């Protein structure tokens, strides 16, 4: 393999289709729930006013109204997370060449992509490879530079969700990273 011909790892069509189906299904259910709330809001408000006029307790009606609005708010947060998940799956590319590897999140703006794990590491910088809760995580060591006058290298963390031929990518990382360390978590 030469520097001019890097290996490119992307999510497979099946992985991207599953992310798209999850996204579309959650949005359909979310929009239906929001429409149901909007349709029933005037009825709930009328029932609250009627209960106040007839001096009946209104705490159950207020509880139903507030819980419905809170459920729609929580559903909105989940919908935004499903959008982020789709963008992470669609835009992820892991490029491997002789110099190192880089993770690109093409569908996410630069600063947010960098915070979510886009970046580049040379093979000598790769110090750990681990499977997090959602992401595969590559970290550099942030070691001190050889000369005492220089500052330590900044901590770099690369993250990606899933790619096709993940076993081949992990084996390539294990073979080419001379400074890779494994910690015993027991």
Radius of gyration (CA) equals 25 Å
DSSP helical segment count: 4
**Major sheet details:** 4 strands, antiparallel
Helix content: 40-55%
User: Going across the major beta sheet, what is the strand order?
Assistant: 1-2-3-4
Share of residues in strands: 15-25%
SSE class: alpha+beta
Number of strands: 7
Overall geometry comes to: elongated
Contiguous low-pLDDT stretches (5 residues minimum) are none
Q: N- to C-terminal separation?
A: 38 Å
- Give, in order, the helices and strands: EHHEEHEEEEH
Mean pLDDT rating? 86
Q: Can you walk through the features of this model?
A:
This protein has four helices and seven strands; from the N terminus they run E-H-H-E-E-H-E-E-E-E-H. The protein is α+β, with helices and mostly antiparallel strands and 186 residues long. The longest helix is centred in the N-terminal third of the chain and has 41 residues. A hairpin with a 4-residue loop joins strand 5 and strand 6. Strands 1-2-3-4 form a four-stranded antiparallel sheet. A three-stranded antiparallel sheet has the order 5-6-7, with no helix packed on it. The radius of gyration is 25 Å and the shape is elongated.
Descriptive tags:
alpha+beta, 4 helices, 7 strands, four-stranded antiparallel beta sheet, 18% strand, 186 residues
Overview in brief:
This protein has 186 residues and is an alpha+beta fold. 13% of the residues are buried.
Architecture blueprint of SSEs:
Elements: E1 7-9, H1 13-53, H2 59-91, E2 92-96, E3 100-105, H3 110-116, E4 119-122, E5 126-131, E6 136-140, E7 157-160, H4 166-176
Antiparallel strand pairs: 1-2, 2-3, 3-4, 5-6, 6-7
Helix pairs in contact: 1-2
């Amino acid at each position: 393999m030469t520097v001019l011909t890097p290996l490119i790892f992307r999510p497979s069509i099946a992985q991207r289709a599953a992310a798209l189906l999850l996204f579309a299904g959650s949005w359909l259910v979310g929009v239906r729930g929001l429409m149901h709330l909007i349709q029933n809001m005037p009825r709930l408000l009328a029932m609250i006013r009627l209960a106040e006029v007839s001096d009946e307790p209104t705490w159950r009606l207020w509880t139903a109204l507030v819980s419905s609005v809170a459920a729609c708010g929580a559903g909105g947060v989940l919908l935004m997370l499903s959008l982020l998940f789709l963008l992470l799956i669609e835009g992820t590319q892991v490029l491997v060449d002789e110099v190192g590897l880089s993770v690109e999140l093409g569908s996410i703006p630069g600063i947010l992509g960098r915070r979510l794990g886009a970046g580049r590491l040379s093979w000598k910088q790769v110090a750990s490879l681990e499977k997090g809760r959602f992401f595969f995580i590559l970290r550099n060591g942030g070691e001190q530079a050889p000369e005492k006058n220089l500052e330590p290298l900044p901590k770099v963390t690369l993250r990606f969700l899933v790619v096709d031929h993940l076993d081949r990518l992990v084996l390539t990382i294990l073979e080419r990273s001379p400074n890779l360390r494994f910690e015993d978590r027991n």
